Amino acid sequence: NYRHLNIDFMSSIAxxxxxxxxxxxxxxxxxMLSNKFNIxxxxxxxxxIERKLLLKLIDENYVNAILFTSGVQIDKELLEHCGNHLKxxxxxxxxxxxxxxxxxxxxxxxxxxxxxxxxxxxxxxTVALLLATSRRLIEGIDIVKQENWNWNITFLCGKSLExxxxxxxxxxxxxxxxxxxxxxxxxxxxxxxxxxxxxxxxRPIHLDERK
Length: 211
What we know:
Elements: H1 2-15, E1 18-21, H2 27-34, E2 38-42, H3 51-60, E3 65-68, H4 76-82, E4 88-91, H5 101-106, E5 111-112, H6 119-134, H7 137-145, E6 165-169, H8 173-183, E7 188-192, E8 203-205
Helix pairs in contact: 6-8
GO molecular function, one term: glyoxylate reductase (NADPH) activity
Keywords: Oxidoreductase
GO cellular component, one term: cytosol
């Protein structure tokens, strides 16, 4: 019975698609992926995988899928090493300039990517830096650390964001999200007009018109 169960288990593993992971992922994600793939290699290091090692792994394994980031170039040479058994590519990045899209289309290999993955975090950090700068937050932290608390009537007053005007160069997804976050403080918005698009609630200007 044990031998029979072991054979069934190995047979089920063999049927799973072969996944090569070129980036360091948390264990919980590896566990999730292991339910759907047979992971032939996980590059569990912070530095980028070397090209020579990547090609060697592809040559030694029947790779059906590759998970990677913008630091890995997916070009014709790599695709030729993969052969006809590569079925899908997935990059953890907003852009895909590092992928030879035309070559992938010729080989009918679909590409997954993460176009909006950084929108909220970038907008959050932009508003956080705006607050830190206007309210002299870093300066205040240094004063506390140095125990140099010499209070006076204007001590660390900074500038209120209310009724301030901020300018945003380009009003794409991240720029629009920054506006949403800054509007909470009652700011007026100006944007550098990069195209003919109209956005209600914002005053379009050109960089040469800044005051």
